[in-house]
Amino acid sequence: MSSNIVIAIDGPAGAGKSTIARNLAISLNLKYLDTGAMYRAIALYVLHKDIDPQDKDCVKSVLKKVNLDIKTKSNGNNLVFLNNQEITDEIRQPEVSKAVSYIAENFAVREFLVEMQRKIGRDGAVLDGRDIGTRIFPNADFKFYLTASIEERTQRRLCDLLKEGYNTTYNEVKQELLRRDEIDQNRTYSPLRMAEDAILLDTTNMTQKEVLSKLLERVEGHE
């Protein structure tokens, strides 16, 4: 397998993108980049500065003070650093999840991050996000779009949050996912949509192992 192939994995929140993308990268000996973590990092910074994430001009004004660095652990996970401080766990807090869709619809933020994402991925990587196959790498070697029913996505996200010690309910998680879907799909810049040449995979009734196997079959079948 070539070390410079680019694989784009897009889809809504809770579809299992990050886990599958990370495991796919490990299987293919490629870098992995969770682009959503980059938006979360900026959301965290904005919240720490007591800035309204919906105030596009204020958010834009602080971007010049943001220094992001993404490193990869031996297990494939990304370590996220904001201004030399590791924030990998902090960016998964529920309040960051609520703010990140507003950050992601900010044109200035997307332009700020797009070149960084391309630089990291251009020599070969598996990237997951909302607009990898449509905006970041429209000429990616492989494009996948993962989705699942809202019930399945809610259950997955709920399990993750409970494991991390957050106190929440099924209905709260479901409403948050629906809210994020609405914002992601209807934003002006780089809305969530499946690339015309992407392979659609509904993971509702599939295990992580089954999803990974499907993707590997597609990629390795084109060697």
Automatic annotation (TrEMBL):
Superkingdom to which the source organism belongs: Bacteria
Key word ATP-binding present: yes
Segments traversing the membrane: none
Residues annotated to bind ATP: 11-19
Broad EC category: transferase
Keywords: ATP-binding, Cytoplasm, Kinase, Nucleotide-binding, Transferase
Pfam families reported in the protein's UniProt record: Cytidylate_kin (PF02224)
Primary residence: cytoplasm
Domain Cytidylate kinase: 7-219
Gene Ontology molecular functions: ATP binding; CMP kinase activity; dCMP kinase activity
Protein known as: Cytidylate kinase
Organism expressing this protein natively: Natranaerobius trueperi
